[in-house]
Design goal:
- The protein has about 300 residues and is an all-alpha fold.
- A hairpin with a 5-residue loop joins strand 1 and strand 2.
- The chain folds into three domains: about 90 residues, Orthogonal Bundle (Endonuclease Iii, domain 2), CATH 1.10.1670; about 100 residues, Endonuclease III, domain 1, CATH 1.10.340.30; about 55 residues, Winged helix-like DNA-binding domain superfamily/Winged helix DNA-binding domain (Arc Repressor Mutant, subunit A).
- Strands 1-2 form a two-stranded antiparallel ribbon.
- About 55% of the residues lie in helices and about 0% in strands.
- The protein starts with 10 loop residues before the first helix and ends with a strand.
Length: about 300
Amino acid sequence: MASPNPPADTAFTAAVSAWYLDQRRDLPWRADDATPWGVLVSEFMLQQTQVDRVLPKWHEWMRAWPTPTDLAQAGAGEAIRAWGRLGYPRRAAWLHAAAQQICAEHDGQVPNRLSDLLALKGIGDYTARAVLVFAFHQRHPVVDTNVRRVIARAIGGHAEPGSPKPAADHAQTEAILPNDPESARIASYALMELGALICTARSAKCDVCPVQHMCAWVAAGSPAHSGPKPRRQARFEGSDRQARGRIMSRLRASEQSVAQEALLQDAPDRQQAERALASLVADGLAVRTRDGEYQLP
């Protein structure tokens, strides 16, 4: 079985990177002329949302607000309306708040230091490191679900990576990155792409994997996962998320404030709908006007 801590610049990473450069998807935020702001917007949008849904919305967003200053000068409600049906609309509000911080604290330029990025609204460790690597070509481990799965299988010999352990995950990922920052950047893209397209959670395509011959999991006979089952996302149908989404759709569709009865009409569960509306107000995604109606912020 392969060592759990291989040295940097391994044949494994080189093979994955070569595959990526030949097979990579043509995504605008990966282009040579992509701006740090474009990369940051893509990272916000890609959180829990598939690439094919993000692509058209990213283009629309970048046409409307090509810089942080453009977005900061717009209202938060405009950002939330433009977010459309990408889901988790708090991301739009957070991105708008982050744009305002970038203008106020960094002269309208996306910062290139980890501490500064982490101080922005809605940015966690993964997003901050992704921006540093993909926008500023710095060398950092970028660890998402796909990267953790690839490393768990190819290097650890396990079907699933288990619960996230940030310090250990970062160390293990950094150990297989090339020392050169640009090569490490390509390797980070490659590991993510391999997990997204080939080494998937439900059906690994081992027959077309560029590192099948190096994979510890394949060498072990591709054993099934024996640990706790990964937590599944709660069902959307009938959930509070669906109730919130129904209300948000009506708010986005109106340029004027909307009466509560109009927002909650036809709700299959009135109490749930009222709870959903209250949560949207608490999250800053809806505001109550003086006359008791509701609108986007």
